Amino acid sequence: MRAWGASPLSSIIPAVSKKTALEDLSVEQLRYLLMEKRRRMRHDKLEHFRRTGRVVMLASDTSVSSLETLRSGSLADIEQAIAEANPRSRVRRILDIFLLIVEVSAVIGLVLVLLNGLDVLRSLNKEFAIGLAQPTLTPTPLIQEVVLPGGHTPPNAAGGSTFNEAEIPEHLRPLVQSLASAPTPTPGPEQAIRIQIPAINVDYPIVQGDGPEQLRMGVGQHIGSVNPGQVGNIILTGHDDIFGEVFRYLKDLKPGDLVILFTNQKSYTYVVMSEPEIVEPTQVEVMGPSSEPIVTLISCYPYRIDNKRIIVRAYLQSGSK
User: Fold this and answer.
1) Fewer CB within 10 Å, N or C, the chain?
2) pLDDT digits (tens, 9 = 90+) for 263-287
3) Rounded CA gap, 133 and 135, in Å?
C-alpha cells in the first residue's frame, strides 16, 4: 500500500504502513481508511466545482469532537457529523424548510380563495335567481262581467230598442262602457262559425263578441270562452225579439234536443240536459267556467219585455265529430 501523509487525524488514528496487511489492521484503522477515501472523493468533487465556476465554502478543519464521532459512529453518523461541520449545509436545510412552509401556505391560501370564490358565486347566483323569480298570481277572468250579455229595451218601447243601461248599477256603468270598446279578436280555425238547433229551426252564423254591434249580425260568442269541443263553457248569446229573433224559441227546448256547433274543420253536437232556466240579468255566475265541455245559450226574456234572461245548457255528446 502507498504511504499516507500527515493529516489532522494523525493525533487520533495511528499511521498505517504500506507493508501492513489488511488482516493486521484494527477496526479503527479500517474506519480511518474508509473516511480518508470518502474525504478524497469529496475533495475531488470540490475541485471540479471550483474549476467549473461554482464556489463552495467549506470548513478548513474538522473539529476533534466531530472526528471522535466519525471514529465511533456508523456511516449515517459520519454523514451527519460532516453535515454539522458544514455551516452552509445547515443554512440550506433551514432555507429549504422555510421555502416548503411558504409553498404549503400558498397552496392552502389558494384553496381557501377558490372555496371563498365559489361561495360568493353561489350567493350571487342565488340573489340573481331571486330577483328573476316572478310572484305566483291568482288567475282572474280577462273580463269581469257585471250583467249577462244581450240586454236591451223592448222594441215597442219609446225610442225603440236600445242597450238597456238601466240594468247596470250606476257606479259600474263606466266599466261596462270601457269593456264595450275592447277590440274583437280575429276568428281562428277552431272557433265557432255557425250554430244549428233543429228543434227550433235555428241556423245562424256565430261572430266573436256579444256586444250590441256583434249581436246585430247573428249569435255572439263571449270573448274568452272556450272553443267547441274543448273542456269548459262556451257562451253564446242571441236576441229574442230584434235583429232576426234568433233565440226567440229557446223556451221551447227540452232535454234531449241537439245543439250543433260548426268550426272551419269540424262539427260538435251538444245535447240539452235540462229545462230552460230564468235568471236575473245580474246572475253572471252562469257564465262561470266548467270542468266539462258545455255550451250555455243566453237570451232576453220574456218576449218584448226583456227584463230577465233565459238560460239553456247543453253537454257535448261523446264522440262528437
Assistant:
1) C
2) 998 999 999 999 999 999 989 999 9
3) 7
Angle at 83 between CA 82 and CA 88, to 5 degrees: 125
CA distance linking residue 277 with residue 207, whole number of Å: 24
How many C-beta atoms surround the C-beta of residue 148 within 10 A?
Answer: 27
DSSP code of residue 152:
B
For residues 308 and 301, the answer to whether their CB atoms sit within 8 Å is: yes
Contacts of 191 (CB under 8 A, 6+ apart): 206, 208, 221, 227, 228, 263
Q: How far apart are CA 129 and CA 19, in angstroms?
A: 95
Cis geometry, peptide bond prior to residue 302 (ω within 30 degrees of 0)? yes
Cα 261 from Cα 154, distance rounded (Å): 29
Give the single-character DSSP code of 139.
P
Of 2.40.260.10, 2.60.40.790, 2.40.50.180, 1.10.287.110, the CATH number of 190-316 is 2.40.260.10
Distance CA 210, CA 221 (A): 6
Q: Helix, strand, coil proportions of the chain in percent (round to 5)? A: 40, 15, 45
Distance (Å, whole) CA 236 – CA 208: 10
Return residue ranges of the chain for CATH 2.40.260.10: 190-316
pTM (predicted TM-score): 0.55
Q: What is the pLDDT of residues 80-127, one digit of tens each?
A: 555 555 555 677 888 888 899 999 999 998 889 888 888 888 888 888
Q: Which helix (H) or strand (E) holds 179?
A: helix 173-180
Residue 26 one-letter amino acid: S
The DSSP code sequence of 260-318 is EEE-SS-EEEEEE-S--EEE-TT-GGGGS--SSEEEEEEEEESTTT-SEEEEEEEEEPT
